Prior knowledge:
- Keywords: DNA-binding.
- Helices cover about 10% and strands about 60% of the residues.
- By secondary structure, it is mainly beta.
- The protein has one domain: CATH 2.40.50.140.
- It has one helix spanning about 60-70; strands at about 10-15, 20-25, 30-45, 45-60, 80-95, 95-110, 120.
Amino acid sequence: MAITNPMNNGVATGRLVSAPTIKMVSKNAASVQFRLGVLRNFKTKGSYETDFLLFNSYFAKAAQSKLLARLKDTPQGSFISVAYHVQSYETHSAVHGNKIQLSLVADSISFINNSGSDESYHQEDDNSATPF
């Protein structure tokens, strides 16, 4: 099991910018990528700005069926809350040399509807689906 630094955790709530991309990375794991538009809670030059955050997640087979079905039916603009952690990894290329890249990895996704109730989906505790 990977150890996660508690300083690298966060929660973002916003609107789904486009349809999520779902890829089966193996028989036992799915990769889900989606972009969330998060409104800042302060004004810059008199108006609020929006940050667009790209999330990646890898879900083991036990969590796949309900989550994937729910994501496929989620329209653009839906209100979503994501608990995530920041993951770093090093890449190397002949042109750019070594680089450290950061990725926002969703640990749980909550779909919030107008009535105030929500549905939540969490990653499994085993990290067999995590490619890094």
